[in-house]
Automatic annotation (TrEMBL):
SUPFAM superfamilies: Cupredoxins (SSF49503). Gene3D superfamilies: Cupredoxins - blue copper proteins. This is EfeO-type cupredoxin-like domain-containing protein. Residues 5-107 form the EfeO-type cupredoxin-like domain. The keyword Hydrolase does not apply. The keyword Signal applies. Pfam families: Cupredoxin_1. It comes from Pseudoalteromonas gelatinilytica. Keywords: Signal. Residues 1-22 form the signal peptide. InterPro entries: Cupredoxin, EfeO_Cupredoxin.
Length: 115
């Protein structure tokens, strides 16, 4: 039993340290569109996407590039953790409104002086 408590404690410690270093970026889903449609983030860093669904209908955040999907319930805020990302462009879309709810995460190199 003590081994399980120790293992769980270590897991929680690792997760909390990971979360503490994740920079937060906010997206808004409104009228089946993501705002902003493009966000620029530092490459090789852990990230926290906070998505507020202001629509009256659910949407599903979906990204093959980011290997993430999550239902965004109407009137609620959802969190998706990503990264660290290599430099590049990572597309995402709303599965229920794929022609309008589209966006891109652009991961760029940053100098240590920029941090």
């Amino acid at each position: 039993m003590n081994k399980w408590i120790l293992a769980l404690s270590m897991l929680l410690l690792c997760m909390s340290s990971w979360l503490a270093y994740a920079k937060e970026y906010k997206l808004i889903l409104k009228d089946h569109l993501f705002y902003p449609a493009e966000i620029t983030v530092p490459a090789n860093k852990k990230l926290r996407l906070v998505i507020e669904n202001q629509d009256d209908t659910p949407e599903e955040f979906d990204s093959f590039d980011l290997n993430r999907e999550k239902v965004l319930y109407p009137g609620r805020t959802s969190v998706i953790y990503i990264g660290p990302l290599s430099p590049g462009r990572y597309d995402f879309f709303g599965e229920f409104s794929p022609n309008t709810a589209r966006g891109t995460v652009v991961a760029t190199e940053v100098n240590d002086a920029d941090n």
